[in-house]
Amino acid sequence: MFQLSQFYNYCQRNAVDVIPYAGMPSPGATIRDGEDTAIFLDFSAITTLRQLNGVCMHEMGHAATGSLHKVSSPYETVERSEYRATRWTAQHCLTKEAFREAFAAGYAEIWELAEYFDLPEQDIKNALSYWTERKGIDFTA
């Protein structure tokens, strides 16, 4: 299960700068310049701790996989980068074991899982989709 401390520990261990930057087109962005990597967070666009958790988890996925793209990249390249970051977060933060624990504890609806993991519903949907559609995991068995 993802904790915000994982994000900051990852950034510290891997020399990834975390920089607040208002007015970005999205709440978070990961940028690499040569060997340097930075994650920019627009705190004016992040309104809840749950959203902050989701943004940080996703951007950590970009930094960990190196799945970055230019702003002018074609749609397929952007989607490939987003998929890789989403896949990494499922494999490392929203694991199949974490979902099994949540289901065993009685959480079944997307909104309940979002509360349990303290993450946005879309992140839960993305991870569940990865595990069920891509990996064929059946959480009902």
Which helices and strands appear, and what pairs or packs with what?
Elements: H1 4-13, E1 16-20, E2 28-33, E3 36-41, H2 49-65, H3 75-92, H4 96-104, H5 110-117, H6 121-134
Parallel strand pairs: 1-3
Antiparallel strand pairs: 2-3
Helix pairs in contact: 1-2, 2-3, 3-6, 5-6
Description:
This protein is α+β, with helices and mostly antiparallel strands and 141 residues long. Helix content is 54%, strand content 12%. The protein has a three-stranded mixed β-sheet with strand order 1-3-2. The model has no long low-confidence stretch (mean pLDDT 95).
Shape by Cα distribution: globular
Order of helices and strands: HEEEHHHHH
What is the rounded distance between the termini? 21 Å
Order of the strands making up the biggest sheet:
1-3-2
Q: Return the structural class.
A: alpha+beta
| Poorly predicted regions | none
Mean pLDDT across every amino acid position: 95
Radius of gyration using CA atoms only: 15 Å
Percent helix among the residues?
40-55%
Number of helices: 6
Strand content: 5-15%
Number of strands: 3
Characterize the main sheet.
3 strands, mixed
Task: Give a brief description.
The protein has 141 residues and is an alpha+beta fold. The protein has helices at residues 4-13, 49-65, 75-92, 96-104, 110-117, 121-134; strands spanning 16-20, 28-33, 36-41.
Question: What are the defining features of this structure?
Answer:
single chain, 141 residues, alpha+beta, three-stranded mixed β-sheet, 6 helices, 54% helix, 12% strand, globular
